[in-house]
Write a structure and sequence with these properties.
The structure is a homodimer of 162-residue chains. With 162 residues, chain A is mainly alpha-helical. Helix content of chain A is 59%, strand content 7%. Chain A has one domain: Arc Repressor Mutant, subunit A, CATH 1.10.10.10. The first copy, chain A, has a three-stranded antiparallel beta sheet. In chain A, helix 1 crosses helix 5. The structure holds a DNA duplex (30 and 30 nucleotides).
Chain lengths: 162, 162
DNA sequence: CTCATATATTTAACACGTTAATGAAATTGA
DNA sequence: TCAATTTCATTAACGTGTTAAATATATGAG
């Protein structure tokens, strides 16, 4: 349940903003705004993914395998934006469930190559249409143009340091 | 470190996007774009917070207490955008470290009232200037105007369902 | 070739996210 | 009044995020 109590609203937003010691208003903070937005978006997808008994991250991994074919763990971490230790656990879980296969790279014994399994393809086939529908509904309601603009602005923010 | 052996480049990214079965490109996905952007922003703050031995969430909690004074747990969950079970743990940890105090509401025995402790105020005083500096550096580099626009767009996305 | 260094993955330890269930206190309504 | 319901906080269980350290393999300098 994402709703919180609407009972106790704002007190007096004026006793801050004058005091240089205090941090600025939480509502206009980029980290929290990004968190809120992301949560609002994921709230649309999560129940559907839960019905298919996969997590958001598991979905990202098998989806990327469906897109890109054979991928090693580093490349997966990069594409799915998942840290290596998390990815190790996710791979283990997906392999145990038979959604992916895993084998060492013959040319570089350190690398782990991942591939989607038939069972994984079945999940892709089941989830993809629903996922698409949810995304398109969202795009329509927010505005297709605005989604593009937002994606560009987010990308620019994400690459400020490069 | 995103580069791999150029030997086994499997498929072109173009053979999808025409196949309605497959999900659309990960790079233009709102959930991941929001995640990336958030991570990029937090990367600026996290090392500083770590030097002061507090987590991002702990910082949000004490910062809100410094802003708003006495706050009950539900209100805190709402403002800091932290789910109740996480908040329970964070409160326990902050109280053990002496950064906040906690007591039951006399008028409603279910509620827990939180207040910042002197030790917490010391952390606020230490961290706030650094946090501000980082945020302002970020704002300057991204553009003050653009940050405002982005915050508005994110807020709209977050409140699509209300 | 060999040793030092670098890279890819895993493990460990702890904090947070998420959902469901529980316990306790307040509220409702018959 | 009191039983049913609702609300607030906590606990439980599991998955992920984060940092540091460990392990195994590859690479490069001498």
């Amino acid at each position: 349940m994402s709703d919180r109590t609407p009972m106790s609203r704002e007190k007096k937003p004026d006793d801050l903003g004058h005091d240089a010691l205090l941090p600025h208003n939480t509502r206009r903070s980029l980290p929290i705004a990004l968190l809120r937005a992301r949560e609002a978006v994921m709230a649309h997808f999560r129940p559907m993914l839960a019905r298919h008994d996969i997590t958001e991250q598991q979905w990202r991994v098998i989806r990327i395998l469906a897109e890109a074919g054979r991928v090693d763990a580093s490349e997966m971490a990069d594409k799915a934006f998942i840290l290596a230790p998390s990815l190790t656990r996710i791979i283990r879980s997906l392999e145990e469930r038979g959604l992916i296969t895993k084998h060492k790279d013959a040319d570089d014994g350190r690398r782990v190559l991942l591939e989607i399994a038939p069972e994984g393809m079945r999940v892709i086939a089941d989830v993809s249409p629903e996922s698409r529908a949810i995304y398109e509904e969202l795009e329509t309601r927010y505005g297709r143009e605005r989604v593009e603009v937002l994606l560009d602005m987010l990308d620019e923010l994400a690459t400020l340091n490069d």
